[in-house]
Amino acid sequence: MSNSEMQTPTPGQPIPMPPNFQVKWADPRDSKLTWMSSPQFKTSISPLIYAVISAFLVGGNAGFEGAGLPFEIRIERINTYPYMGMVPKAAPPDVVIKGMGLLNRAAPGVFKMMMGKVGAGMSKQQEAALNPIIERFDAYWNDELLPEIKQHIAYFESSDLRGMSLDQLRAHLSETLKRVERMAALHGVIMPMLYAMSQFEELYCELFEGATTLDALRLTQGFDNKTMEGDRALWRLSRAARSIPDVSEILSKRAAGEIIPALEKSAASQQFLADLHKWLAYYGQRLNSVFALDQPSWIEDPTPVIQNLQAYISMPNLRPEMEPAALAAEREKAVAEARAKLAGYPQPIVARFETLLKAAQVATVVHEDHNFWIDQRLFYHVQRVIMEFGGRLAQAGTLDAANDVLYLTPNELQKGQDISMKRLVQDRKTEMEHFSKVTPPPMLGTAPAFEMTDGGSMVRAMFKGEMSPAPTGNSEMNKVKGLPGSAGVTRGTARVIHSLAEAGKLQPGDVLVAIATEPPWTPLFATASAIVTDSGGVLSHSAVVAREYRIPAVVGTGNATATFKDGQLLEVDGNAGIVRVVSENEESDAINLQSAIENRKSNEPALVG
Q: How far apart, in whole angstroms, are the C-alpha atoms of residue 48 and residue 406?
């Protein structure tokens, strides 16, 4: 039986391990937990990347505690793959867990009612922790968290890595991991952020009969943020490129890797090249993925930026609905309509609506700005520290190549010459090569005895974000059902993209199909006509940014990347959360209808007035 053919595990029971992915638990108690693979990590990770992620999770758990959540997140590198596990702070005994599983199977209605009461109690704890924060969310982010975040970034920017001795670098690496922990604690802003957006959405749908989640979130859109700021600046660069014949020709006719050298040789391209480097210096402090510490930053390798510019110059104009004024006007109209409907409501309800509206609007900005400062800039600097360390060890002959440093642990790096680093690197490369041929199972350990979404209002909010569970039974041929992420219906050619290395194949009007999108992917949204993802919910990064771009999005399909193939014509219904392949007959009928309409228009007399 292959890993993909494993049956759905029974709640509360051990999950069968596939023959090629046997696990030896260092602590037998870990086998009692539920370990989930992350959709963002489909490949093995090296020991040093694992150490950085672990440090980030240590700090991140402070955010869970501050949100009143009764669990923390652990990560384990199992057979070279990262698995996340939720660990209850006060775990019930095994007999209680087994009893809950039995009750869930024997009397699901009774179990659901019991869990509803438990969830209500958890919600009260979480609301007590989070309501005071969201009532002053703007000041909490701008006056408390963001200044400290910028201080940590300034520390990295002022560090002279090249001027450090090897011993100083060792100390700097230790300090870096400590600051990763602290930045992760500040990253805990995602808790009140998601909570504010979720609470507003739920209140809106409760107050206005027939309202949808997307109706509610229209009132939070159109505020500028660091993601859209950078994307618009890149778009303006493309307009400059179109206006300079030499630059336009270079971008149009050369491969991405040849662009910078060609621009450097072109006298007419110097101002554009200077502006491009200026954009990279500020917005290019990012990796292709948050923890892609084994890959160069955009400053070192601007290929993703060049590919976006190449796509943009073939597009005459920015979509009108993307203009900031248009976005703000649409939002303010929706806000005014909601306030008019609330005119006769009791004052406490109106006050709660206004509090949550303000918090959700700030949260939508923070949703992207925290990515810019932490998920992008922090790990850009972490990667620089690691590669400087690797370069020194390779130069000294301790390692064969700079990237080999990723196969070592921080503790091993501190020991220096006391160990044979080359032997350790080779052994770990061999292990990762072995497991690279194995598909890791999505779940290990023990199947949860109950749905995690029963864990209260904050847990419910989390499952609307990146942790949204994928639907089951989504196996219809040429069609998937997901969650409505951004409104609208459109058709376009499917482009299945697994990493930014494949992004060059996305052409204007294509439908971007991915496991998930991360902040570095957002410039692609100006080229795509729609977004479809395997993972994530209505508050995921993919959905939030798609709404800012006013393109349809269907998220959390579970299997879109496995269902669709490049070149298929897709219809994406962001209102219903459905994506399907358009048949050849439908496509032909649509073309004929459009042709008939155009012929009819050409034969009609022109209107005079």
A: 5
With H, G, I as helix, E, B as strand and everything else as coil, classify residue 326: helix
pTM of the model: 0.88
pLDDT in tens, 258-268: 999 999 999 99
Tokens representing 452?
Answer: 């995690």
Q: Which two tokens stand for residue 542?
A: 């993919």
With residues binned 3-state (H G I as helix, E B as strand, rest as coil), the percentages for the chain, rounded to 5, are 60, 10, 30
CATH number at residue 560: 3.50.30.10
- Specify whether the CB–CB gap between 317 and 514 falls below 8 A: no
User: Hey, how many other C-beta atoms are within 10 angstroms of the C-beta on 575?
Assistant: 15
Residue 608 lies in a domain: no
Cβ proximity of 579 and 479 under 8 Å = yes
Distances (CA, A) of 207 to 116, 196, 225, 408: 22, 16, 29, 55
Q: Which residue, chain included where needed, has tokens 């993909």? A: 4
Domain boundary among 369, 401, 428: 369
Q: Are residues 256 and 323 in the same domain?
A: yes
Beta strand segments in 401-455, E: 443-445
Q: The domain containing residue 579 runs over which residues?
A: 466-590
**Residue 69 φ then ψ, to 5°:** -85, 140
Q: Report residue 138 as tokens.
A: 């703007």
Q: Are residues 172 and 272 in the same domain?
A: no
The alpha-carbon radius of gyration of the chain (Å, integer) is 26
**Domain boundary, last residue among 315, 342, 369:** 369
- Contact criterion met (CB below 8 Å) for 443 and 9: yes
For residue 388, give the nearest of 183, 175, 164 by alpha carbon.
164
606 in a domain, yes or no?
A: no
Q: What is the pLDDT of residues 471-523, one digit of tens each?
A: 656 668 899 999 999 999 999 999 999 999 899 999 999 999 999 998 899 99
